[in-house]
Every structure is written in structure tokens, then in C-alpha cells.
Design brief:
heterodimer, A: 927 residues, alpha+beta, eleven-stranded mixed β-sheet, six-stranded mixed barrel, 22 strands, B: 119 residues, mainly alpha, three-stranded antiparallel β-sheet, 4 helices, 3 strands, globular
Amino acid sequence: MSTGGQALSLGERLYRLSLRAYPADFRDDWGDEMLVTLEARLLELRAAFGPVRMARFWAAELAAVVRTAARLRLQGERSGARVGDSRDRTGIGSSGGGPSGRGGPHLRDSRHGAGRVETMARDFRWAFRTLAKSPGFGFVVILTLGLAIGANSAVFSVVNGVLLKPLPYPDGGRIVTYLYSAPGLDLPRLPMTTRDYMAQRDLVRGAAAFGVHDRTTLDLSGAGDPERLSAASTSAGVFEALGVAPALGRTIRAEDEQPSAPSIVVLSHAFWERRFGRDPGVVGMTLILDEAPRQVVGVMPERFRYPDEAIDVWVPLTADPDAPLAHTLTGVARLGPGVEDSDFRAELAAAIASAFDEGIRARGRFAPLTQSLQSTVVGDVGRALWLLLGTVGFVLLIACVNVANLFLVRVEGRMQDQAVKRALGATRWDVARAGLAESALLCALGGALGLALGSVGLRLITGLAPAAIPRASEIGLDLAVVVFTAATAAAAAIVFGSVSLVRPGGTGVHRFLVEGAAGVTGSRARNRLRGGLVVAQVGLAIVLLVGAGLMVRTFWSMRSVDPGFDPNGVFTARVVLPESRYGAESQPTDFFQQLIADVVGMPGVIAAGAANRLPLGPEGLGGPRFEIEGRPLDPEEPGARTNIKIVAPGYFEAMGIGLVEGRYLDADDNQARTNAIVVNRAWADLQWPGQSALGRRVRVANHMSGPGDWLTVVGVSESVRDRSLAEPPEGLVYFPLRGTERAFSGDPRAMTLVIRTAGNPAALADPVVRRVRELDPNLPVAGLQTMRQLVDDSMARTSFTMVVLGVAALMALLLGAVGLYGVLSYVVTRRTREIGVRIALGAGAGTVRLHVLKNGMFLAAVGVILGLVGGAALARFLEAFLYGVGTLDPATYGAVAVLLLSVALVATWLPARRASRVDPLIAIRVE
Amino acid sequence: MSTQDPQDRLPLTHLTYHVLLALADADRHGYAIIKEVEARTDGRMELETGTLYAALKRLKDDGFIESVPASARPPGEDRRRRTYRLTPLGRRVLRAESERLAKVLAVAQEKHVLAAGRG
């Protein structure tokens, strides 16, 4: 375990990679041994050195590799000529003073047999000196590349961590998650019941291991602050299927599933660290969870976070054949060797056949639904991430075009110099090599800056991103990212370096000399290339601006949609009463009515109520099936469900939900068990279209305990967008606190207070918590936030996408403007003499200005047209993110075109004005 | 090789000399050589891994050092890690270089650059 297995540090991985610099035979002979020695040194140094000293150590080690590798390769090349002469060849540590390499790219080395390495070194020294002479150029190039590469590295890190890296489970590709679907009952996803699980235990043989789990919460009390834990009831097979051993103690075993088994709990690493400071003595301790003792039997390793990142503890799922059937379970299985997904599905189908009778099966068309664990974990975040990577990829493209343009200008400025060298006998390759060295140097520096900016950007993204990024703990700058960055920089270097190879007109040394001396604009082909680069930049910027524009429109549509409630001035706090102490039916009602009455008495509070689930809230939605009076149901058949909420009086007023007809629920409904319910407009319209819902009777269809009492609709409220702002409201039935059996999803003991205040809602946090503690000091209070925050959180993905696209588009716009300005300025400077002659011949300032303006705006216009077409083609990738705006929204496209053309006008105006002010006398003298 | 006269191989570089010196009293593996050189120079000479192994390869190619056969190594050693010792040629070269340096030092003492009796 000492050297293998565990993750290597970034430095070690880089070092391993850097060994590739050595000749293959040296590496084969010595590579392993060097790593052993390095590890020994690291073991010693890490204990003694701080991060700065370690960084210096790594720098020295890597530099030594580069130095000695270059030496060895050089000697390898020479050894053909000098076999057997070993004198002074051991002087590896000393830095030899090679040929000085003055005077530009070495002209004839390649033909005189000097080593490639030496020639290369000379090229780089020359490139370095040249750049030092014109730091402005280098600065702009490095910064542009650094920003673009940094953005790409950061986003690629996220994509890599979330989408590309294998899951932290051994052989994770064999793991699938599963549940059922019943399309015949309009249930595309049907979680399973304990009865289904027991049927699977009897019939599924193709899985090496499988199990089911359900998400739940448990209240921790006893020593320390009470806390609400995120828990999963898990069957034994889940841990086995995922193939992860506990860090301490044991996991859940099959015998723990027996109803008579002692109560146990397994802790997550994060919870163990947070609550127990990683005390290994925790195994064997007893925790009070939901007021009942449970013995800690194990702790899972840090990387094990299943089913999601927030998990605190796992408790055994009790396989009780007599428990009421709730469709709440999801399965996870590791496929056995040679077993295909389809074989596994066939076995699940057999389990379905044994669990449901034939009539229901025929109607429901039940089928198993499997999905690889990877796609279950990642969910639909993948699409957003690929979009993000595409976006920053665009910015990188624009940055590269910009830099290519700068290089082009620079190469042209050097043309005369190069022509002289060619005339003196340098080959075209000699000259080009110098350009390559320069671009390689710049791109290496840009890449290094990019890596640094990338690590900063990564922290920004993970901070800014919706908390819902899965596998967030696995995101980091690692070797894959470094390789990605290096590859990006290398690709850029090759592209820019080859710009110096662009030689329209071919071999005419004579022509370079003459042209250079004459100082005319350069060949038509080069002008066209320059113009083409500007068009490309403008076009790419337009594409990004279109994307950003559509996201802004989406954001505003979502902001202006009527959610059906008024989130402003509302504060929420969640209180969960333990069943052991609040078991009697009247207790939760009494507690919450008391608490609400106390809160209403607080200064500034206008109204207060409570609900078991908030709109857009983390508790999600759920509910039973309802039977409408006069329309009988088959109670054995799982059917379409209706969301329900349990509300305490005052909820509608506090949340600002309007009344369509009838009345709200009130305190009498709680005390007197009136069997009154309120339904929302969407459900009323669905069940009784065109008629009043008042006085209608419905009941809960429960296939275990039989149907509930008939309930009477006493009011119809406005519909609320419960699931998300972008989705239309669903049908909803409101129950009073009292009279809700626990058989369906909804628990009157777990309620969220909703308080409307005239003052600052956030200021209510302290007084509310204090009041709850006065009533019961052992109750945890969670979910302290304003309703506005909840709404904003629900838009997190939209605002995140908008911000990222917006920043990228802004960068693109800026780079595009700089590109346009740079090229036009350059053209004007190069043509100063020509312009001077024109002015001398009587052309007015206006004419000259117009000429340059036309030149620039033509390029911009072509770019805008191409960009709009490209944007329209790419906008369909955004479709899933849009709301309230089409992918071809004309207003967005128009606004983007106008914006870019105005920026282009400014960028063109400055060089045009300069051109019109050319003094003909001076201009003619300009070389 | 016909030229086995150690004089042909002088002077040695600083690095070469220190590595050979580190092996003069004991066979050592790479890490131990680094530690020994560091200790003998009061930490002034810190060898990077790459520098050391490039030098070891050169010394081995020149026949100054050889790796100790696996059978002669203590059991339980990491098999990827080789132990090195001086060859007879390496020892002679080391002695020749030391004598050369001693002569240089004697000159320094004669000229009162260095107090006698040191080194």
C-alpha cells in the first residue's frame, strides 16, 4: 500500500510525466529507481518542509530532469561521432557555456551537423531576447492566452471531475440503478415497495449483489446540539453492490434487515468528522436518532457518498412483509460476470410478475427501468457542463484568432529582416523555426498563467455553481487538467508558429527586400487573411452574444412569471417533532397552533402559518391517489397521484396565495375534524372542468388500509408553481393538520413555518429559534431562510448559465473590438504614406475617414451576418435551458447585431480619425 | 578498453568526485548517496534525483561503479532499488583524484592560502 494504490500528488505525477524527456533506454534502465529514490526523499521532506520549500524542491527536481535529459539526448546524438571518448562527460551538474548564439536564428546549424537540441536552445534564447525587447506584445499575447486557457482549464476540471472520471467505486461501469415504470398508469417512474424488494430477493440471480434504499431524515438528539440528519434506509446489498468496504467497523448486513434485529447505524465520513472529530472510538457508541437508541457499527470511507453528497448516516431497511406499501425505494445492482443489462431486466420483470396480479399488470404495463450509475449520479447537469465547455472553447478560439492576428502583424514587420537573412543563405525552415520558438515560448507562458488562473476560476465556479453539482467533492485540478491545458497551449503554439510560414508569393527573396523597403501594405493575400481573422472574431463573438442574450431573456421571463405566491417579505423555518414525544394525534396540532400564535404576536409580523412542503422547496412533492365520489377505483392498482400539502391555518395568507372561491382552512378544521380540504385551481379544472368544485367529495385510495373518509372541498385556491418556475402548476390538495393519516406521503409533525412580515424577514431568525426552544429545547430548527432565497435558489441553474455565458460573451466582444481596432490601426499605419499622398492630391478628411470606416464596417458586417447564422444554428443546444423565449427570438438577434455594430463603429472610428489627420508632408517621409 | 590508467580520467568534476567519495566506505543506494553527500558537505550540496542518476549512469558506463548483484543484497530490500559499489578502476580513479587534490592543497598551504594541518 506504500507506493501503489493511493493517489499520487500532482508533483509526483508531473515528475513521472517529465521522465519522458529522457531517452528511452535511460528511462528503462533508471526510471523506476529514480521514482523510488524520489519517494524516499519526499517521505523525509514532507514532514519537515512547508509548502513554499516543497514548491522549490519540486522546481529544482523538475529543472534537473530537463537539464540532464537535454544533456543525455545531446550526447546520444553526438555519440555516433565520438564513441569511446568519455572524458569530462560526467560534468553533468555544471552548466556548460554553449555557443552564444547571438544574431538571431542560427542560420546554418542544421547543415553543419550541430545537435538539434543546441539549435533549439539557440532559437529559444533568441525568442526570449526578442520578446524582452517588445514586452507589450508578449504581455498581450500571454494575458489573452492565459485568460482563455484558464477558463478552459477550470471548466474542463469540472467536466472531468463530474462527467469523465470513473465513479469512485471499483469497476463502476458494472453498476446500475433500477426502478419500475408503469406507462399504462401514466407513471413513467415508479419507485418500488418492500414487497417488490422481497420478490427480487427470491428471483434475481444475475446480479453479483443488489439492494434498495430510500432517502429519509433522522433527528439526532442527546449530547450536543440537536441536529437533523440526512439519512438513507438501506438494504444490506447496497454496500456490496457498490463494492466499498467500511473505513471502520462494518456495514449493514442481511440480518440487520429483520424487524427483530437490534437498531444500528453506519456513519458517513463527513458526519463522523464533523460530529465526532474522527474519533475511532465511535464504533460501539449509541446515538439517539428519532428518539430511539441506535448503535454505531461502522464508518464509511471519505469518498463513499451514496446516494448523494449530503448523506450523513445509513440505517438498515426493515424488510417487514406487513409494512404498508409505499413506493419509495430505488435499487442499485452490480451485474454479475457475463450478465447483460437485458438479462438483469428480464429477472426484474419476473419479480414484477410475482408481486402484482395479472389484471393490474395488464393495465399498468409494468416494466423495469435501469440506468448506469454514472448517468444516475450526474443527471441532467451533464448538458449544462458540456454547454459551458463549448462556451469557453469559443472564447479560446476567439483568443487564438486574436493572437494569430497579432503574430501576423509582427511577422510582417519582420519581413525585411528575414529577407536579409534569406539572402544570406538561411533556409525558409531556419526562419520559420525562429517563429515557432517564439510562439512556443509565449504559449508555454500563457499555458502556465492559464493553469494558475484556472485554479482560481475553479474555486469561483464551484462556489458560484448551483449546490446541485453532483460529485462536487471529486472536482480538482489534476493531471488530466494539466495535460489538457498543455495540449491546448501546444496546439495554439503550432497554429501561431505556422503563421510565420505564411508566405504568399513563395520564394521571392528579392520581392521581400523590395516590398519591405517600399513599406507598402503587404500582399493582397495577407490582407485577406487579416480581414478573414477579424470576420471570424466578430462572428464568434456574435454567436456567444446570441447565447448570452437568450439566457438573459430566459432569466427575465422566469423572474416575471407569476409563481402563484408572493415570496417577498416571507421568512421560513422548519421544525420537526419526534414521533415518540408527539405521537398523539392532537399533539402536533397543538404545538404548531401555539407556535404560530406566538409568532403572529411578534412585532412586524402580518401573518403566519405552516406547511409540510414549501413551493420550490427541497422537500419535493408527493401524494396519494384520490377517488372522486362517483368514480370508483381499483385499490390494488397504483395510479396517477395528486400532490398534497398539509397546512396550518394562516398559510395561505402568509404565502400570499389567492382564493378563487369558497374559504381557506381555519382553526376549526383542525379542532373539529371537519374533513374539509382546499384544492387548487389546476386540480379543480382537471377534475370538474367548467364546474364549481365546492362541496365535491373525494377520498384517499389506500390499498392497504382501505379508503379513507370522504373529504369535502370547501375552497379553491390559486395554483402555485410548486416544482419549478418554468413548469406549469400541478394539481394540489391542501389538508388541515388534523385528520391526515400517515398512510400517504405527508406528516403533520414535519412542518415549515411561513411568516409574512412588514420588516426585514431575515431578522426573524433569532426570535423564531428562541421561541421554538422555549417550547421544546430538544427540537432542531432547520431551513431558516427567506422565501426570496428559495426562489432564487430554484433559478440557480439559469442564473449560473446566464452569468457564465454573459462573461464569456463580454470577453468575446472585448477581444473582437480589440481585434478590429488593432487590425485597422495597423492598416492605417502601414498606409500612412498612401493616405498622405491622397490628402496631398486633394482628398478631404471626410473622404479619408469614410474610406477607413467603410473598410472596418464591411468586415464587421460580414462577421455579424455569419455570426447570426452560426448563432441560429447553435442556439438549439440551448433549447433545454430556455424559458419564455424561442431559440430564434428576433429581438435578441437584432439587439446583438446592433450592439456589436456599435462597438465595431467605435473601434473603427479611432483609426479612421487618425487617418484623416495624417499630415501629407510628414507622411511621405515615413518609411 | 585499453586505457585503464586512472590519470587519463582526471580531473573529475565536483559531482563525480563526491559521488565516488560517498561510495568509498560503503555500498549505497541512490537515496543513501544523496544523504551522504548532503551530510559530508554540511548540506551545501543537495543533489536532485535527476542529476544523481544521470551521473550514476555515466559512472557505470565508464566502469567506475557497478551495481551490487541482487543475491548479495540484504533480503527485504525494495527490488527496484539497486545498491552501488566502486569497481577497482573507480577506486583507483578516486585515489588518483584525491592525490591530485592533495597536491593542489599542499600548494595552497605552501603559499599560506590555507593553514597547514587542515583538510
